[in-house]
Predict the 3D structure of the following.
Amino acid sequence: MQSGYLENLFGLSGKVAVITGAAGALCSAIARGFSAAGTTVALLDVAAGKVEQLAQAIRSEGGVARPYTCNVLEKASLQKVAESVLADYGRVDVLVNGVGGNRPEATTGPELSFFDLPEGAIRSLFELNFLSAFLCCQAFGRAMAKAGRGAVINIISINAYRPLTRIPAYAAAKAALANFTQWLAVHVAHEYSKGIRVNGIAPGFFLTDQNRFLLLEEGTGELTPRGKSILSHTPAGRFGEPQDLVGAALWLASEAAAFVTGAVIPVDGGFHAYAGV
Ligand SMILES: NC(=O)c1ccc[n+]([C@@H]2O[C@H](COP(=O)([O-])OP(=O)(O)OC[C@H]3O[C@@H](n4cnc5c(N)ncnc54)[C@H](O)[C@@H]3O)[C@@H](O)[C@H]2O)c1
């Protein structure tokens, strides 16, 4: 193999990545992946204990990581954290917007009809899944605009392509985030620098706390009919593992993706491609 070939193409050593929702199931794996690639990771999460533990674990594995406890929906505290990250590391090369999720109170079912979905739950899902990423792009994008380089990666969902049943607010908020990903990709290239890229990853089904109640029966842990249907529509034949997202995230952050912007990449075991027949 040509010496340095992969390092030139994919190398992320010495870069700084800000990861939001870093203590969560998916983004903790993404954070560890960046760290293993030699990237300094600034870990943002509202769960103080969990994000501190993650930073400690990454440091004990030889990485450079710092926790920043922060509610990304509070603009003033987010701004302070952005200033702290810049004071601590002097640059932001990558922003992974991972905060998001669905909630039972915004999910239709036998006990909760569409007509009774509470307005507060709908609003809060739009804040959690759309506004969170929007505000973080404002807070950390400024440093990228100034530097003329950077990669934003929004963690979206396959719901953005076609809405799944039962979760209308989550699906619509993720569709809004996919739309914003395209908008911002164009805007930063036109107004600031062609060296800033904005992309998304659309995970398929990963068995985590936010969807366990939909995929597994509470008492038995058996697959629900929805869980079975998902697996039968997933050519890979399994749920995703958090580690499955790492390669796409590192690629989108790297020089190998220099001509990729405004894209949303499905990482879903083929779910999105399968028409069911
Ligand atoms: N789990 C899946 O199957 C799946 C599928 C598609 C997309 N996604 C998306 O991937 C992302 C991560 O999902 P996950 O399953 O790891 O979720 P998770 O609930 O495990 O992690 C989310 C993290 O965000 C943090 N957080 C929540 N609100 C916050 C706020 N206001 N400020 C700062 N931190 C906050 C939480 O403390 C948590 O650590 C989400 O955007 C989710 O919608 C997940």
Summary: Residues 21, 23-27, 45-47, 70-73, 98-101, 128, 132, 155, 157, 203, 205-206, 208-211 surround nicotinamide-adenine-dinucleotide (CB under 6 Å). The beta strands are 16-20, 40-45, 65-69, 94-97, 150-155, 196-203, 264-267. Residues 12-273 form a domain with the Rossmann fold fold (CATH 3.40.50.720).
